[in-house]
Write a structure and sequence with these properties.
With about 280 residues, the chain is an alpha/beta fold. It has one domain: TIM Barrel, CATH 3.20.20.150. The protein is about 40% helix and about 15% strand. The chain contains nine helices and eight strands. An eight-stranded parallel barrel has the order 1-2-3-4-5-6-7-8, surrounded by five helices. Helix 8 links the parallel strand 7 and strand 8. Helix 1 packs antiparallel against helix 9. The termini are close together.
Length: about 280
């Protein structure tokens, strides 16, 4: 691919990325999410928001739900998804499992009320989990909300895809997180030039959302850091080539799992389209 063609491809991607740019409220894990933070997100050019229930957002606090919805509407920030890892859908204790399903259904209805179309969870893949998913889909059949399984922990991409195939519903898809995956050699495939693109394309049409963040050499530094860090090793060009291969049109959610420097994160996410072109505009992805 020639330099001119590569530049055109990268500039096209920059426009696409800008339109799909999103951030998780996990970035504000330590400071909370309010009017000030929402305004800063929009000032950075970010247009989509994922609400993480593992942070200071309390989905049962009606005052907070109303305030966040109002401020997002005021700023033109679209709430597109909810994310949680709290529910024991896989529990062998039937009472615990049933309670988890009912709480997740309540959360899903709150998500739809706030405009979100996706509820992503840390689903396992055992029989109890499958039963929980079927029950949630049944209770939410009057809604268009999509449930999503994330690759995390023991649930690898192939396991998540197998669960999606088993459930076989257009309202149950996959959320791909580029930091959680490990190959048999213990290395994240998204840091490999010959692995990142293939890791994305295996998701096919089952992909409904992605979590993006930077990874370092893990024996020295952790992942879930601001994207395109100068010391980062994610093969971003290959990741986005894979997203283009599968025709992905969903939101690009940049997720911070620690909330250590929200201002840096918001700035880095807002600058991502420009930085992407700067890095890949002179070399084929």
């Amino acid at each position: 691919m020639g330099k001119a063609t590569t530049n055109l491809v990268c500039e096209w991607w920059a426009r696409e990325i800008t339109g799909q740019l999103g951030i998780s409220s996990a970035v504000f894990k330590k400071v909370g999410l309010g009017a000030r933070e929402i305004a800063r997100i929009r000032e950075a050019g970010i247009t989509h928001l994922e609400l993480s229930t593992n942070t200071s957002f309390d989905y049962r606090n009606r005052k907070q739900v109303s305030e966040i919805a109002r401020e997002c509407e005021k700023e033109g920030l679209n709430i597109v998804s909810f994310h949680t890892s709290l529910f024991p859908f896989q529990s062998a204790d039937e009472g615990e499992r049933t309670e988890a399903v009912q709480e997740a259904v309540f959360l899903a209805r709150t998500a739809m009320e706030m405009g979100a179309g996706i509820l992503s969870c840390h689903f396992h893949t055992n029989a109890q989990t499958q039963r929980s998913v079927y029950e949630m889909l049944e209770e939410l059949q009057d809604m268009s909300l999509v449930l999503a399984v994330e690759n995390v922990g023991q649930v690898k991409i192939k396991d998540a895809l197998s669960l999606v195939d088993e459930i076989n519903s257009d309202r149950f898809k996959m959320l791909l997180d580029i930091g959680h995956e490990r190959d048999s050699d213990g290395v994240n495939p998204f840091v490999k030039k010959d692995g990142a693109r293939a890791a994305v394309t295996q998701c096919r049409e089952q992909l409904c959302a992605v979590h993006l963040h930077e990874t370092f050499a893990l024996e020295h530094k952790p992942d879930h850091r601001a994207p395109l860090h100068k010391d980062g090793i994610i093969e971003w060009g290959k990741v986005f080539a894979g997203l283009k291969d599968v025709g992905y049109q969903g939101v690009l959610l940049f997720e911070d799992g620690r909330g250590e420097n929200p201002e840096e994160w918001v700035r880095a996410v807002g600058e991502f389209p420009k930085k992407f072109v700067e890095r890949y505009g002179t070399a084929s992805s």
